[in-house]
Amino acid sequence: MNILTDLLPKSEPAPGPRIQKGRRGIEIKSKREIEIMRQASAIVATVLKEIMALTEPGMTTADLDAHAEKRIREMGAVPSFKGYHGFPASICASINHEVVHGIPSRKRVIQEGDLLKVDTGAYFNGFHGDSCVTIRVGQVPEVADRLATVAEEALFAGIRQVRAGARLLDIAGAIEDVVKKNRFAVVEDFTGHGVGRNLHEEPAVFNFRTREMPNVQLRAGMTLAIEPILNQGSKKTKILRDRWTAVTVDRGLSAQWEHTVLVTEEGYEILTDRTKV
After folding, report:
1. 27-to-33, 42, 146, 195, 241 alpha-carbon distances in Å
2. Topology of 27-276 in CATH?
3. What is the model's pTM?
């Protein structure tokens, strides 16, 4: 459901993120692997926390991308996104009606009132962390503020369903209920996903109820990237000529939040928790 996973890999910069061919099914991480994922995810959380603090009107999305790549590498990791299926940057920077996969540019100046989505990942010792934030740049319109708030509420509603024995559609249903209650639209063209040795792994983590995919039972040791994407108006999206940037068809606003989450016997652990870095 995500164009980053639908395209076949091209070239990958060594020793960067790998796409491991022949690996199928849902992986259960060992204690050692979980500890590495904690470190990868802490790098992502640190970078996003810094970007949230430094973003201001007049900067370009390329400025944020340069900061993210510098800091990820300083902490001993490799940007997960750069070179992944040919993506040219270390972050996705999507503004206002841009939904996902916006390409950073020196020409894209961040303006007062923008709703900026920054998504990034770090590849550390063989494993990825992945997270996204929605940044309100200065004073934003009331609808933008509410959209961002509801999107974050939907994320945590989904996360609260996570525990061994729960089902994927428990997450999806909780997210969908929050969105519908607030009269926004869930984007159906993109989903969350498993994450670990590969940036995108099974299972697909839907943000809406569906019978199109198996309703997988969660097991301790699974690691999921949960990422609700909400639109102000129509749920429909289209891809721009750059073949990456997805936008709303009605030019309504879009918001997204994402965390990498570990399934535990008792519940969950948010590996990309920015309050812990």
Report:
1. 11, 21, 36, 9, 35
2. Creatine Amidinohydrolase (3.90.230)
3. 0.92
